[in-house]
Each structure stands twice: as C-alpha cells, then as structure tokens.
Amino acid sequence: MIANQRYLVPSSGTAFFNRVVAGLTRAGISVMGSRVLAVRGRTSGQWRTTPVNLLTVDGERYLVAPRGHTQWVRNLRASGTGELRVGRRTETFTATELTDAAKPVVIREYLRRWAWEVGAFFEGVDKSSTDETLLAVAPGFPVFRIS
C-alpha cells in the first residue's frame, strides 16, 4: 500500500453497526440516506456489498470513504461503475473520483450530515475545520461523484 493511502480497519463495533444498517437498507429502510453499495470485485468479478451514505451537494451526488482506501474504493476505481440498492430498488451508476482540491466542500458537508456516525474516522477534523485543513487530509478520504 502507498504510504499516503490511509485505511482504518473496521472495529467490531463498526462491523456490527454496518451489518445493522445494511440489513435495514436491504429491507427497504434507508437510515439517514443509507444505501447498499454493490461493486464487482476487481479480481474475482463477484458482487461485493457494503452500506454507504449517499450525499447530495448542490444537486450532485457523492460517495465518501470515511475509513480511507477501503476495498470498495479499490473495486470502484477498477470498475468505474456500481449499484446503489435500497430494498428492491437498484440504481446503476458511473463513478468519477474527485481530485483532492475538489474534496473540502464535499467532506465538510459529509461531516455536517453524518459526524454523529463517522466523525471518529476523521481524527480531529470536523465540519468547522478550515479549507486548508480539509485539503491537507483530503488524500486520505476518497470521494466519488456518481451519475
């Protein structure tokens, strides 16, 4: 792994929370905008799923990886496409990764909306952090615009 490719291993509490949110979302109950992200594995070709928070900023939709360069991030980079699922509804999308310079506005909004859930992964950065601070941490937080 490249040194600046930050990755936080999920704790048992995070894994439990993810299972609960994923289960509710699969049942058709979106928890504060949750979706189940499905992306084909970059080597296996098998569908891989994980719960995510779908963020809308100025009419554009984004996926943010609060734990860094996770497997879903690597798979999405390789495939460029995926699915967002809630219950029986499935939406296919194309993903474009944002440059670090474009991330501060999206990261700030993500923290404004979900800091209660993911704030611990941001290690002292919050919605009131300066643009310079958010820009400094941006390489550790992949962000994708989806369409």
From TrEMBL:
NCBIfam families xref list: hi_GC_TIGR00026
Designated name of the protein: Nitroreductase family deazaflavin-dependent oxidoreductase
Species: Pseudonocardia ailaonensis
